[in-house]
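retry 2 of 3: previous attempt timed out while embedding zinc ion. Reduced batch size to 1 and resubmitted. Inputs unchanged:
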Amino acid sequence: MDGNKESFRRPGLVRRLFEFVLPHYCMVCGRRLDPSEQQICITCYLGMPRIGYEMDSINPTERILLAEKSLVRAASMFIYDKESDYSNILFHLKYWRHPKVGRWLAGIFARELQAKGFFEGIDCIVPLPLTYWKEIRRGYNQCMHIAKGVRKVTGLPILRNAVIRKVNRTKQAGLGKYQRWHNAQGLFEVADAGALRGRHILIIDDVVTTGSTLCSMIDTIVSVVPDIRVSVITLAIAGI
Ligand SMILES: [Zn+2]
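retry 2 succeeded.
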């Protein structure tokens, strides 16, 4: 993989000492990490259930979002399966206060995508927003951390408040496919149409399942800014 060298480079003395005093453990298998490893061990990294991305074929993420006429391209990094130990990555990212893993993986994925020309023509990054209160409770928006990993590689600016998410008391997780689509309607609001007009934006989400949340966000943006072009990156894709 293209990101290997950057992501598993030889650590400096300070990092090796730090790891000796305060060891870290692989988020997937739980093994103690070597100082040259970050977040997950090299064995789990190489065994990750990757999707792969080719510019000339329709991948599973693009298939999910196929109904969106404004979609230019989309890609996901790995397959999410709740029975797999790799699901721990998303739990760490979203619920266990380790958003750094999102930034790290996004950096690796972005380097791979950049080599394939994925970011050509894209103007800016729009992380999928959380509601105000959810972000306060969690302490961060995990999609922002993924966005920062992409920004570090591409230099693309992040638009923070162009789209906001409204309060919805029903969670998407645990709902059936049709309930998710119904529940996702009207979740978003465009707060700064001027920042989006005429642009090609890159929406970033942590995991795509049915695509209902992403489609709801894209539909809301298109209804206000019809000339928008949209590409999408998610770290994981579920249900394939
Ligand atoms: Zn491992």
